[in-house]
Design a protein that fits this description.
single chain, about 210 residues, alpha/beta, five-stranded mixed sheet
């Protein structure tokens, strides 16, 4: 379970606005990659005992994620998301696209961070001091919170936008991951403009038909 140990050490060194960053959708074969950015307050109220439940978004049920995402807004100075499209992923590669989505998330914050805690990646494109933490969403509450905000936002986009544009593809269920159902629907209907053409098995499917 994640905690605030890293944040407390940084607050003790006079870093006031510590931003957790995490991405979701990196392993999908369709749709954008999203990153969340969250700057938690140093002191906040927790009457419903929700704070301890903030953890890696993959380990939390959808309804609980939505509740926690709303709670995170209340205990944060500011939070935001940034994304990179499937076209950008194909053009610059997934690693650069993840960094781009994180930079966009940072720029969307109402307050500029003075330190970044990042899950499993470094962002050389910013001068903000930072720490890259392997499995950070299981260690830092700020990163866990960012993963939840990103996951809720991306799922909402997949359901309310892409799924409505392509109702036959069940994007509202698999959210762009390469599930058995998703692959069967690609075999039946072909790929969409949201599929990542540089990702297997989409790449082989695309090259075969072009």
């Amino acid at each position: 379970m994640s905690n605030l140990e890293l944040e407390k050490k940084l607050w003790g060194k006079s870093f006031d606005y510590i931003c957790g960053l995490d991405e979701v959708g990196r392993g999908c074969i369709a749709g954008p990659v999203y990153s969340g950015a969250v700057i938690l307050k140093e002191n906040f109220e927790d009457p419903d005992d929700l704070f301890r439940k903030i953890n890696d978004s993959k380990k939390i049920a959808p309804k609980k994620r939505e509740t926690l995402s709303e709670y995170i807004q209340k205990i944060s100075h500011t939070s935001s998301v940034g994304s990179a499209s499937s076209e950008e992923i194909d053009n610059i590669g997934i690693v650069k696209a993840v960094k781009l989505s994180m930079i966009r998330a940072i720029s969307n914050l109402r307050i500029k961070p003075d330190f970044l805690l990042i899950d499993s990646i470094s962002i050389e494109e910013t001068e903000i001091p930072q720490q890259n933490i392997i499995k950070g969403d299981q260690i830092s509450k700020s990163i866990s919170a960012a993963s939840i905000v990103a996951k809720v936002s991306r799922d909402k986009y997949m359901v309310e936008n892409i799924s409505k544009e392509y109702p036959n593809y069940s994007f509202d269920k698999h959210k762009g991951y390469g599930t058995k159902e998703h692959m069967a629907l690609i075999d039946k209907y072909g790929i969409t403009k949201y599929h990542r053409k540089t990702f297997e098995p989409i790449k082989s499917n695309y090259e075969l038909k072009n």
